[in-house]
Amino acid sequence: MQIERVDEVRFRIPKDSRHGMRTDVLFYASDAILEQVRKDRSLEQAMNVACLPGIVGPSLAMPDIHQGYGFPIGGVAAMDWDHGVVSPGGVGYDINCGVRLIRTNLEKEEVRARLKELVDQVFRDVPCGVGGKGHLDISEKQLNQILEQGAEWMVEHGYGEPSDVEHCEERGQLRGADAGEVSSRAKERGRPQIGTLGSGNHFLEIQFVQRVHDEEAARCFGLEEGQVVVLIHSGSRGLGHQVCTDFLSQMGAAMKKYGITLPDRQLACVPIQSPEGQAYLKAMRAAANFAWANRQAMLHFVRGSFQKVFGKHVRLGLVYDVCHNIAKREKYEYDGRTVDVLVHRKGATRAFPPHHPEIPADYRTVGQPVLIPGSMGTASWVLAGNEGAMRESFGSVCHGAGRLLSRHAAKHGRDARAVQRELEAKGILVRSETRDGIIEEVPEAYKDVDEVIETVHRAGLARKVARLRPMGVIKG
Amino acid sequence: MAEFELLEHTADTGFRVRGASLEDLFVHAAEALVSVALDPSRIEPRESRSVEAAGETLEERLVNWLNEVLWLLDGERWAPGRLKDMRMEGPAVRATAEGEPRDDTRHPPRIVVKAVTYHQLAIRAQNGGWEAEVFLDI
Fold it and tell me: Which residues contact residue A441 at a Cβ distance below 8 angstroms, ignoring those fewer than 6 apart?
């Protein structure tokens, strides 16, 4: 594979390095990350994405890149809105998998004193849903409303505060969703799961702000050192998974119809302007709205948990909510012209800079909060979007630490209780519905999140605002 | 339950299964999928369900078939214990599943499987039988 170094943190694979590539691959990495990335097939996957019809600019990969299905995880691809394609695999099975960060008015030491009680309470109140059912009973009619209204539906029905919606990407509601394009199977699979966390890499963490790197931005986001925060990482549960499965199964025939051939069936795509492409986008937006409603319901439950333990004076406010598996229509100045594109972010986060009109008014002077969950027991980060992201990465940045070891390798020779004890020794309490939930997500299974953050910071895509350390972890 | 091997994948998981015939292969793949999602050792054959899928290519047929089994597990919350009367006619696959509604105390959940993917999917004839590799999004 022909990899050219552009600068300290940028690398390029030129489009003439393989037949069928329509554009270059541009990826962000430190030297250490580059060595890790070479070990799996993620760069090959980024080259496959470069073959998709209608791609504008390079096929991009962030430093948390790792091998996914079709698209690499940590990949970004902008497709021409009129002549490009939409790929359900470019969004992923977990549509609008995302992160929300909640600030509290509690200090680390106050929470430390009652941590066990708090973690157990949250574990009871926020079901992981491995057993398939949450605490909310939603009718079919209500579900259809949620699919079109997202987080706002939850707030209107008593599960939250109006300001919560102001602090969500897209205000927690993607326009142009159509519940009618979501199959009855997807609805049936997702309906009992609303308000549940899910398994795999999804988690809820009680954390504290360990270090502030940008005083002005941190103050603006309502964060200060020693303060306790809660981070929720979850998505659209079975509803989103089924939407992706449903549309992928139709794509084989549709691609034949449109004469599209691809190096990997999992990259399946159709023209954005085709009936199939439009139907997928309407269903995808509905699934995205389900995910925002899901995370909103969990915020409501967590508020209850904190109040049960610490009393009614406890305030929990939403800092922000971002999605990192999504395709959205956005406009950019690129190569001296305005481009109208569908940006696929597969394990990548939007990172709009200061003064962008899509940012909530109270954050507009510092830029959009970018929330990066780290691995269990290490650290998570709050960043702020920079101009650099608008110039070169279609307003996008990384989404996490990025996996290094397979789940199988992570399990090798490890015992869940021992991992739990090791984390407890570091002051981190873990509760999980399954034994595998703990060992498959051990910190060693992931890249060093700090190195990933350093890379995007140096690249100028986003800047460091605060580093968060976990105290309590709830997992599926 | 059939023997299967788990396969390495950075983000997710996969399995390799074998069968003396294509019918066997599809049955074993379904059993492997069930074993990834839960502990199947105590599933009782209390009820039966018919499972059907279709696909133009063998790959599509296998993915659609396994997604039907996943629907039983995650959509209907039903645990298939044994598959019998497997029939393959043209693009269609049909079988009868014997099992019971999921009960987390008797069939402890292992992990939520999001989907069966086409990623690195391989189906090949080998030593007079069949072998398949399937990756799951989890």
Answer: A201, A203, A375, A376, A410, A475
Q: Which residue has the tokens 């998981």?
A: B13
Q: Band the pLDDT of A253: cuts 50, 70, 90.
A: confident
Write the residue in B11, B111, B121 that is nearest to A73 by C-beta.
Answer: B11
The torsion region of residue B121 among left (phi > 0), alpha (psi -120 to 50) and beta comes to beta
Q: Which residue has the higher pLDDT, B99 or A250?
A: B99
Q: How many CB pairs under 8 A join A and B?
A: 105
Partner A contacted by B111 (CB < 8 A): yes
**Residue listed under structure tokens 């009960």:** B103
Alpha-carbon distance of A27 to A432, in angstroms, equals 35
What are the angstrom distances between the C-alpha of A327 and each of A20, A79, A222, A317, A400?
Answer: 23, 10, 29, 28, 18
Average pLDDT, chain A: 94
Q: Which residues of A are marked as active site?
A: 399
Query: How is A226-250 classified by DSSP, letter by letter?
Result: TEEEEEEEE--HHHHHHHHHHHHHH
Distances A46 to A74, A234, A329, A391, A463 between C-alpha atoms, Å: 10, 25, 21, 20, 25
This prediction's pTM: 0.94
pLDDT value at residue A148: 97
Q: Report the largest interatomic distance among the alpha carbons of chain B, rounded to a whole angstrom.
A: 41
pLDDT in tens, A257-307: 999 988 888 899 999 999 999 999 999 999 999 999 999 999 999 999 999
